[in-house]
Amino acid sequence: MTELAPTVVTYPDGALTGSSTVTHVTPLADGRTGVVLDSTPFHPVDTAWPDQPADTGILSTPDGDLRVATVVTGGVYDGDLVVGEDLPVRTGTEGWTFVVVHVVDGAAPAVGTAVDAQVDGGLRAAVSAGHTACHLASLALDAALADAWKKDVPTDAAGHPAFDMLAIQTSRITEYGSTDVYRIGKSLRRKGFDTAVFDDLRAVEARANATLAGWAGAPGAIGIHREDTTLAGRRTWRCELPEGTVELPCGGTHLSSLAEIEAMSIALEAAEVPGGVELTMTTVIRVAP
Ligand SMILES: [Zn+2]
């Protein structure tokens, strides 16, 4: 029986350190241990939508330092804690309590131990830049493909037909970049998307890159806004683009201003797959030192 409060998360505000208390420990595969804290600056990889990779770092305890190899989400239902890949529901599902599970090697600290959490700031900065670039690239791609739609479809945060939302298969954020894979099959064509636009992929790329070049270095603020501080709490990415402020749901970490961006661009590749086209967008970003 596991009675756990939802973990308070501080990474949406950019935190890299924090003092916490161990509330639960659980044995994992490979002799590793999952450590749950009452609050944490560590960003966990999300099970259902693993776009931003986990933070790494150190938990300092009175008995020494524990290296945090990865961080995953856990859910408690009916007193049972289910961790990482085994979690059968999306974060936020009603009836579950969601916690951050720090995966460490070696002896686990006892429940009640005070720990100092310290996130690897270099990796965090690199994936935060990658995550911001990922969102901006998807908006720039939507704008670049706006004329390919022959019917009305739902729009994105900037008011363009939501190609990204309607076609996305996977999104992986990396250090200073991201890779997004889209699938354009029968259902997207039925919604009015004309794949002839991909006949000149370089033109689509050029339009998106012109948009991104206009955003890089602009003065707009970027931030995560939230109503509550728990892991499962609803969070929104807000970015002041030159065209106006955009908002979309996001569980990750980001740059704090467009002004930090020196340059960013995308590259597109299309491949025929059974029943349609698979489009891969590779995004890179360079941040001011
Ligand atoms: Zn996001």
Question: How does this structure look, described?
Answer:
By secondary structure, the protein is of the alpha+beta class. It has two domains: about 10-120, Elongation Factor Tu (Ef-tu), domain 3 (Beta Barrel), CATH 2.40.30.130; about 125-285, 2-Layer Sandwich (Threonyl-tRNA Synthetase, Chain A, domain 2). About 15% of the residues lie in helices and about 40% in strands. The chain is built from four helices and 16 strands. The strands form four sheets. Strands 2-3-8-6-5-9 form a six-stranded antiparallel barrel. The chain has a four-stranded antiparallel sheet with strand order 10-11-16-15. A three-stranded antiparallel sheet has the order 12-13-14, with no helix packed on it. A hairpin with a 2-residue loop joins β6 (about 65-75) and β7 (about 80-85). It is globular, with a radius of gyration of 20 Å. Zinc ion binds near residues 131, 135, 237, 250 and 252.
